Amino acid sequence: ALLSPGEKPLAGRRAVVTAGPTHEPIDPVRYIANRSSGRQGFAIAEALAGLGADVTLVAGPVSLADPPGVSTVHVERAEEMLAAVRAALPVDIAVMVAAVADWRVESDTPQKIKKREGEAVPSLTLAENPDILKTIATGTPRPAFVAGFAAETEHVIEHARAKLARKGADLIVANDVSAEGGAMGGVRNTVHLVDANGTQSWPEMSKAEIAARLAEVIAKRLDAPTT
Ligand code: CTP
Ligand code: CA
Fold first, then answer.
1. Any idea which positions bind CTP (predicted)?
2. What's the half-sphere exposure (Cβ side, CA atoms, 13 Å) at 147?
3. Which bound ligand lies closest to the C-alpha atom of 159?
4. What is the largest CA-CA distance in the chain?
5. Could you say which of 7, 50, 63, 120 is the most buried, measured as most Cβ atoms within 10 Å of its Cβ?
6. pLDDT of residue 107
7. What is the pTM (predicted TM-score) of this model?
């Protein structure tokens, strides 16, 4: 059954949400980034707050206004995002929506790298970034409910199920980003909820609607006795 308007089932609960890309500096004027508008994560933070949760949103660089009723922390790099998420603990709910860069440049230079005629082009050595979702889902204090997202271009459900196990999450929200007019940057999305009970596919809807429905799913899960 749908919640009636004004119900606050998440009152007294704390939540942390990550959103947007991360930027990993190469030098002071260049970076490596992922494609992400931040829209879905911002909408989820706002929806959780709408149900009464005390929400910290940890946002990578995006061109969106801070959502109302949410405490927003702005970060740039994955390591800063992890530190900001840790600083928000303990929480009941963690929803990791950010498109975190999997790698950072091992040694970003303090000076701008210059083009030099006749010289070899620079090559970058990469280092692996921390997996924020996995760190939070397998760390202490562990939030009661941890959800992640998975943007896939093929074998969407299979890959999402593998991520559920590998990262120790309670739920993976999977979407196919290869689809025509896909989710990346858009306002609509088609998602599949993958958890221990199976897979539930939702029809295409706006990111705001997905956020509202997901917040309700999370509220119900926190109420339900653990099985
Ligand atoms: N994630 C994270 N920290 C990272 C990488 C990913 O918190 N360093 C989170 C994302 O926010 C998302 C989930 O993990 O909720 C899945 O991200 P994804 O990039 O799909 O998973 P990866 O494990 O990085 O696998 P791959 O990119 O190879 O598909
Ligand atoms: Ca990744």
1. 102, 112, 130-133, 149, 163, 167
2. 28
3. 1
4. 69
5. 50
6. 85
7. 0.95
